[in-house]
Amino acid sequence: MFRAMTVPVGLLLALLGYIMALDPVLEEAWEGWKSLYAKEYPAEAEVIRREVWEKNLRRIEQHNWEESQGQHTFRLGMNHYGDLMDEEFNQLLNGFSPVQHEEPALTFQASAAQKTPAEVDWRVRGYVTPVKNQGHCGSCWAFSATGALEGLVFNWTGKLAVLSEQNLIDCSRKLGNNGCQGGYMTRAFQYVHDNGGMNSEHVYPYQATDTSSCRYNPGDRAANCSTVWLVAQGSEAALEQAVATVGPVSVAVDASSFFFHFYKSGINSCSWRGAVR
């Protein structure tokens, strides 16, 4: 069940700036949304959260109207983040912490001799596990790392293993990752390499917290990482070839935009300030 969060004073003042007259027409929709996502609030917080939700809903509806007029190539939809301001969403979920100097690794360069197919869908080939939910934890780096490793394990074994993000959260701190406060995928791969393996989600289930000590069980190793390859930085051609020929690739996307928070369908061209690393 989703409970009300503790909000820093500065952010609370920003939230208070949201408060306007609530739209009575949306009362039924608001109650239905709360029921759908099991949302509960203290009485003093509900008005604030309702106003944030209404403002997000209006932005979503405006965007979708513009999409119907040909101004966008993707649609938005209300989801369980509907009561969060952009700042709150980013505090909770954007946990990518890049490093200035990469660990030594091999570099994947684009090859002029390599012909890239027009399209590749690793999902239909069995390389990709179902969509996961990181919860209120800045562990996106761990999910990105396991996603790439899961594809490689399938390529090697023909079996799709669901790997443990919690294993990476709890056990890769010594390499510089910081649990729910952020991390870097290369450090996660390096941990698996140095550790000689990692566990599956079944053995080491996800908790969306970073308060536990490392509980890796070498007797239940589900995957290993022998070599870390880095796609040549800034090369879209190298990234395209890696995705087309190797399998799912671990990338970091700036998801701080409202358009990512409520993305529903279509092609989001990432045309704002965000970048892919």
Description:
It is a single chain. This protein has 277 residues and is mainly α. The chain is 37% helix and 6% strand. Helix 5 crosses helix 6 (165-171) and helix 5 packs across helix 7. The longest helix is centred in the N-terminal third of the chain and has 26 residues, at 43-68. The protein is globular.
Q: What are the SSEs and their pairings?
A:
Elements: H1 9-16, H2 27-36, H3 43-68, E1 74-76, H4 86-93, E2 106-108, H5 140-157, H6 165-171, H7 185-195, E3 198-199, E4 221-223, E5 229-231, H8 236-245, H9 258-261, E6 263-266
Parallel strand pairs: 2-5
Antiparallel strand pairs: 1-6, 3-4
Count helical runs: 9
Shape: globular
The amount of helix comes to 25-40%
Low-pLDDT residue intervals, each spanning 5 or more residues: 1-5
Strands of the widest sheet, in order across it, are 1-6
What string gives the helices and strands in order?
A: HHHEHEHHHEEEHHE
**Main sheet specs:** 2 strands, antiparallel
Descriptive terms for the model:
277 residues, mainly alpha, two-stranded antiparallel ribbon, two-stranded parallel ribbon, 6 strands, 6% strand, globular, disordered N terminus, Peptidase_C1A, cysteine-type peptidase activity
